Amino acid sequence: MTAEAVSRRSRITPEREAELYGAVLDLLREVGYDGLTMDAVAARTRSSKATLYRQWGSKAELAVRALRSQKRVNLEDVDTGSLRGDFHRIVESEDDCRMEEDSALMRGLAMAVHANPDLHKAFRELMVAPEVTGLGRVLQRAVDRGEVGADNPALPYVVHMLIGAYVARDLVDGRPLNQSFLRDYVDSVVLPALGV
Amino acid sequence: MTAEAVSRRSRITPEREAELYGAVLDLLREVGYDGLTMDAVAARTRSSKATLYRQWGSKAELAVRALRSQKRVNLEDVDTGSLRGDFHRIVESEDDCRMEEDSALMRGLAMAVHANPDLHKAFRELMVAPEVTGLGRVLQRAVDRGEVGADNPALPYVVHMLIGAYVARDLVDGRPLNQSFLRDYVDSVVLPALGV
User: Fold this and answer.
1) What CATH number belongs to B75-193?
2) Do B192 and A195 touch (CB under 8 A)?
3) A-chain residue closest to B186, CA distance
């Protein structure tokens, strides 16, 4: 986040921010990204459109930050002492109901990126990049502990494997994402590919 | 394909079918799935809407079959004698230009499935299921040759890993899909996860 963005956002309280994000997520569930308007957000949260644009700059940034606010866990803070433990802790950080709800929202946004270049940019910068960085820290600690070779060729692709689990669960299996599926995927695919 | 569908489709020549599919793909590139109309397909191909509906049943089926007609290789026909060879042959079956073009179309359709239940159904039945079946044959031959253990826990997830490569290449790396990336992904992720 730029210093300017921090200063912009610091003008509202965390409670008010959470309230606004909640309203945005409700609207995203109701009408999807393309149907979301700043007018509707302003009306539902009794704020002015000017305030919304001043604080968030764009509908794309507001939507992505609202979705990101749902994350319970910063990946880079997960440090159980083993890579398997770290992955399982990450999987367990959301219960199944919450995971299905959030993944539907995430899919909705990820789908809309292709028709909306500014959303594509916000999604990559504010949602994907921090996860890639956080996952990189988790993996680096595994390398430092000697669990994974520093030159293991699967290291740059862990995020690809994980995204595959999210997308294919719906598209191939036609089943909801849940903890037991993700745990099995981590144990069956991600850890073996890393030689753990 | 049902016998009824075969009989429906057999009324037009393969050349005419290819011409129709080409027009549908052009329109998908120009206006996307949501913008595609049977009127536009009829106009561009000088056919009647009644003919289109009789032959394909729905816009969803027509779009998915048009995309599927682009596949150069039936996965289950790939049989080089080794799993690594099979995967590389599959990767090499499309040149880089074609791959980028097709993956953009495929992404477009895969994205639209979430707002269109009939497209979701057609996409899963006519696009995903045959690939899963074909990949299953390739993997079964590797098991029969003794390359992969029959109880290898990554076997049900190969399609998830591959879909991850397709989706994340754009979303995470922001780079086009190509043969060298896919070859590296197969060698770094898919084969190691399978213990090959």
Assistant:
1) 1.10.357.10
2) yes
3) A154
Per CB-CB distance under 8 Å, the chain A contacts of B30 are none
Token output for B166: 């397709």
Best interface-test mutation with B: which of A31, A34, A157, A190 has the largest number of B CBs within 10 A? A157
- Cβ atoms of residues A185 and A74 within 8 Å: no
Any idea where the domains of chain A sit in the sequence?
Answer: 3-68, 75-193
Q: Which two tokens stand for residue B195?
A: 């213990």
Per-residue pLDDT, A7? 53
Is A185 an 8 Å CB contact of chain B? yes
Q: Which long-range contacts (CB under 8 A, 24 or more apart) does B50-55 make?
A: B54/B8, B55/B8, B55/B9, B55/B11, B55/B12
Asked whether the beta carbons of residue A32 and residue B107 sit closer than 8 angstroms, the reply is no
Please give the class, per CATH, of domain B3-62.
Answer: mainly alpha
Residues B64 and B122 sit within 8 Å (Cβ to Cβ): yes
The minimum CA-CA distance between B79 and chain A, rounded to whole Å, is: 24
Q: Do A167 and B162 touch (CB under 8 A)?
A: no
Tell me which of B157 and B12 has the higher pLDDT.
Answer: B157
Note the pLDDT of residue B71. 82
Q: To the nearest 10°, the Cα dihedral for B153, B159, B163, B169?
A: 60
Name the CATH code of domain A3-68 (choices 1.50.10.10, 1.10.10.60, 1.10.287.3240, 1.10.10.1800): 1.10.10.60
Query: Does residue B24 carry a pLDDT above 70?
Result: yes
Distance of CA B103 to the CA centre of its chain: 9
Residue B127: list chain A partners with CB under 8 A.
none
Stretch among A176-180, A184-188, B103-107, B177-181 having the lowest mean pLDDT: B103-107
Flag whether residue B183 sits within 8 Å of chain A, measured between CB atoms.
Answer: no
pLDDT < 70: residue spans in chain A = 1-10
Nearest-Cα distance to chain B for A150, in Å, is 14
